[in-house]
Write a structure and sequence with these properties.
This protein is of the alpha/beta class. The chain contains 1 helix and 9 strands; from the N terminus they run H-E-E-E-E-E-E-E-E-E. It has one helix at residues 2-38, and strands spanning 46-54, 57-59, 62-65, 70-77, 82-86, 91-95, 100-106, 111-116, 129-134. The structure holds copper (II) ion.
Length: 135
């Protein structure tokens, strides 16, 4: 029976030893992520746009910024309730008529992204969209 305990303790030591190795690996991974994120440090630029939403368009319908820019959008519907959504930046706003909604985000990835109305607003709803370009 004594041998059982000795084996158990040795086994536990081995498990703890492996656990330490695993957590060391995690620390290394975290360090890599941290150094990557420094590449995405926001630029000093704030790009501000006034965007009007109306049946069935956004004006302007194309917004261009540079990667790292802080983008500030002042959104306003001038007729009925609309939505404003950009999936890739987790933006999802409801635009009540006459109310200005401000959205601020960092354009931290390059690409061409679609913003669109996600509140049914009439026959042209499905075509109510625009393009966000991040270079
Ligand atoms: Cu709509």
């Amino acid at each position: 029976m004594k041998y059982f305990w000795v084996i158990l303790v040795i086994g536990l030591l081995l498990v703890v030893g492996c656990g330490n190795k695993a957590s060391t690996g995690n620390i290394n991974t975290a360090a890599v992520i941290t150094s990557d994120s420094t590449l995405d440090t926001p630029t000093d630029s704030i790009k501000e746009f006034n965007v009007v939403a109306k049946q069935w368009e956004f004006i302007p319908d194309t917004i261009s910024v540079k990667k790292g820019d802080t983008v500030k959008l002042n959104l306003k519907s001038v007729d009925v309730v609309h939505g404003f959504k950009i999936n890739e930046f987790n933006i999802d706003e409801k635009l009540n008529p006459g109310e200005e909604v401000t959205v601020t985000f960092v354009a931290d990835k390059t690409g061409v992204f679609t913003f669109f109305c996600n509140v049914p607003c009439g026959e042209g709803h499905k075509e109510m969209k625009g393009t966000l370009i991040v270079n």
